[in-house]
Design goal:
single chain, alpha+beta, four-stranded mixed beta sheet, 28% helix
Length: 232
């Protein structure tokens, strides 16, 4: 377990252009009637403020849990176009994939069931590890912010951890899966009014490509500043 200690979190805003870039790498043969697929690429293309989330180093702050399982490297992958397999004319030739859809090597592909199984197994374990490291119970946490993958996955994780619905806010019903911006987006859109002017203990848990995960427990206080969401 890798440990980094942070405190006094100031959420100022974030950049969320990732879905726009993700959509560019998706095959036109992929269908948007698949709920998990729609949520995985983002139901809308959104761009927000290019400010960022700042974390201040603090020896006394709670730990974070980080990990990667490289055996799942191809669960979410774009095989071509990178340093290992630079783009060539052959990279753009369409081939039949295991799911029966045509894609070329520079288009993203995902093993949905593998990713789902990873998420509902690893996220709860990582969160429990953080609770243990902090010597607290889930009842001591005000909010658990999960990466907004898809609603079935998030509900399974929430129920595994026996968390009340009001402790696990969702933004994906409005914005889909916004990739690395999904946790701060959820804080800004779902918790802004609830967090302003008060102290709260929170857990953030992200998971995805790699297959990788990261969980952090942190406390915000009345000094927290959350910007207004800017939709362009």
């Amino acid at each position: 377990m890798a440990v980094l200690r942070v405190n006094n979190v100031r959420i100022a805003g974030f950049a969320a252009g990732v879905p726009h870039n993700v959509v560019k790498t998706v095959s036109t043969t992929d269908k948007y009637d698949d709920e998990s697929y729609i949520e995985s690429v983002g139901v809308r293309e959104k761009r927000f403020s290019n400010e960022f989330t700042a974390l201040e180093y603090d020896e006394e702050a709670a730990p974070i849990n980080l990990g990667t399982d490289g055996t799942g490297y191809d669960a979410i992958i774009r095989p071509g176009g990178g340093a290992r397999h630079p783009i060539t004319p052959q990279s753009l030739e369409l081939v039949m994939c295991e799911d029966g859809r045509m894609r070329h090597a520079c288009q993203t592909r995902m093993k949905g069931m593998d990713v789902f199984a990873f998420g509902i197994t690893t996220a709860p374990k990582s969160i429990r590890k953080i609770l243990k490291e902090c010597d607290i119970e889930s009842e001591d946490v005000d909010y658990v912010i999960l990466h907004q993958a898809n609603i079935k996955m998030l509900e399974t994780i929430r129920k595994k951890l026996k968390l009340e619905e009001d402790k696990v806010p969702y933004s994906l019903t409005r914005y889909g899966n916004t990739s690395s911006a999904s946790i701060p987006l959820t804080v800004v859109t779902e918790l802004k009014d609830k967090l302003n002017g008060r102290r709260a203990r929170m857990i953030g848990c992200g998971f995805g490509v790699g297959l990788s995960w990261g969980t952090i427990c942190f406390t915000v206080d009345e000094r927290l500043v959350i910007s207004e969401l800017q939709e362009l």
